[in-house]
Specification:
The complex is a heterodimer of chains A (about 190) and B (about 70). With about 190 residues, chain A is an alpha+beta fold. Chain A is built from five helices and eight strands; from the N terminus they run βαααβββββααββ. In chain A, a hairpin with a 4-residue loop joins β7 and β8. The longest helix of chain A has 18 residues. Chain B is mostly helical. Helices cover about 55% and strands about 0% of the residues of chain B. Chain B is built from four helices and no strands. Classes of the chains: A alpha+beta (about 190), B mainly alpha (about 70).
Chain lengths: ~190, ~70
């Protein structure tokens, strides 16, 4: 089972005047009182995170009967408490992507950027003749794979070999790419 | 510092002169996973520095990155 949602963040959500005035402490409080165990990190993009979590909760409510508590693993990635289902979120630019599955799963959305040859070499991609779109797509596939393993950027992307059987692209538009990887049931 | 800032602007796909050493990285949409990994690759390739994601997550301003690259 794979269910995903990709949404453009509404402008009113970003521009809502109340948000910038909320202190970090209050934001932590908000998450403490919600279903989430929010990792206390220094760098957070709260607007996108809150929008992504709201979207994720809608997806869970629609597809799973009871709400669950989220836990974070040692890499700061969401893990589920009982392993019944797996969730993952990603955001880039104006978009967020959330995914829900009965297997370990990772999703990544990326705004298409100018191809960076040093990065491509670093992640083991021969970038000759690759368009900006394709280069970003390969990066997105690799990141979704690393997220499916709950490792994210801690993983060596050079060692990731993408197999079409488990990693899939999601078409959005010419400016954004998205990919998800579904792992094996544990 | 200017040369390093230019390199950071380049990997973040920002116009030249956008960043200063005081620029808060989280204020920029392009301070994302791709930029962070690009920075790790850049540090290794051009500055022979071993950078990992934990160190990158600790960078608050563009100046923090410049200081690391020049250390």
């Amino acid at each position: 089972m794979i269910k995903y949602l990709i949404k453009k963040i509404p402008k009113y959500f970003i521009q809502f005047p109340f948000f910038p005035q909320i202190s970090e402490k209050k934001i932590y409080k908000f998450f403490e009182n919600s279903f989430f165990d929010f990792p206390i990190t220094k760098n957070c993009n709260y607007h996108r995170r809150i929008f992504a979590y709201n979207t994720l909760m809608k997806l869970i409510r629609k597809n799973i009967a009871s709400p669950h508590n989220f836990l974070y693993n040692e890499y700061g990635r969401i893990d589920t408490q009982n392993g019944d289902f797996y969730v993952n979120i990603s955001y880039s630019g104006d978009y967020i992507a959330v995914i829900l599955s009965d297997c370990p799963v990772g999703i990544d959305i990326q705004k298409v950027r100018r191809r960076n040859d040093i990065l491509m070499k670093h992640i083991g991609v021969n970038c000759k003749n690759l368009s900006d779109f394709s280069a970003t797509q390969i990066f997105s596939q690799k990141e979704s794979f690393s997220k499916a393993l709950s490792q994210g950027l801690n993983m060596d992307f050079n060692k990731i070999i993408i197999k079409n059987a488990c990693t899939h692209n999601i078409t959005i538009n010419d400016d954004y790419v998205c990919a998800y990887t579904k792992g094996e049931k544990r | 510092m200017t040369a390093e800032l230019k390199l950071i602007e380049d990997i973040m796909d920002l116009d030249e002169g956008t960043l200063t050493t005081d620029s808060i990285l989280d204020d920029y949409d392009d301070w994302d996973s791709m930029t962070k990994l690009s920075l790790i690759a850049l540090a290794k390739n051009k500055f022979s520095k071993d950078l990992n994601i934990e160190i990158v997550r600790g960078f608050i301003t563009a100046g923090d990155i410049c200081n690391f690259l020049n250390s």
